[in-house]
Amino acid sequence: MNRHAYLILAHCNPGQLKKLLSLLDDPRNDIFVHIDRKADFGPEALAGCCSHSAVHSVEPRIAVHWGGVSIMRAELALLEAALPGHYAFYHLLSGMDLPIKTQDEIHAFFEEHPGKEFLNYWQFKPTTKNRFRYFTLFPEGAGSFLPNLANNIAKGLQMLLGIRINRGIDFRFASQWFSITHACAEYVLSQKEWLEKVFRHTNTPDEVFLATVIWNSPFRERLQDAGEHIQNQDIHNTANMRFIDWTRGESIRHPWVFREEDWDLLMREPHLWARKFDERVDGRIIDRLFRQLKRD
User: Fold this and answer.
1) Number of folded domains in the chain?
2) Does residue 141 form part of some domain?
3) Is the terminal CB of the chain with fewer CB neighbours within 10 Å at N or C?
4) Does 145 fall in a domain?
């Protein structure tokens, strides 16, 4: 029996998070959760949500900031915590994601695709490369006005003076969310020191660091679909088996939050998981998925 590790980045909505963990609760899965140090709840809030899967809280908790290198560090901490279990696959999810298929369907899919790596590779946007070409003064400041302003001024000066960092690296761009094999996870962690050196003073590295490491490794040949056709960032790229609707999002930073009226759309999708959901926007779709998948 192949066993899987779910890696969860969580920062809010503990009730919704418990529903996610309950839907992942299966003897074939273990669950590793990193709760943002800034969150107003801790691991104790998750007590009793699983009876078949072991649930591990990753410590020490990192204060994660949008666009910061802290996101990369939290993801690597999750991989480090899970790696000793030698799982067949490691799936990174947000605490605001949900499965849209049963655990039997999810495991059957990966049984049919052994040794494959699942990432969505995207074409670079015009400004994306600036994230890692120029030294970022405040790498945790992308979501705050003054630090972000200082970062942009510093970047402008570097561009004017022709100053660049990280030359000679074949950077790649992909969705943050992935499903990778044990061998690939082990390789990524072997590059942890290099990753820290390259990305610690960059902006929004979460969609670049893993994509770059895997693309420039033998695991590139094991990519499911992505190595053959790098696509635009939209809802049709299925290489990582996550349904994310960027076409209706409130901004380029945030995808669409699914509502109950999206039920038929979600049920038609071939993906295994979807993001994102928010009980503060529409809890009915979350409850309906929970009832459907628990019943099945």
Assistant:
1) 1
2) no
3) N
4) no
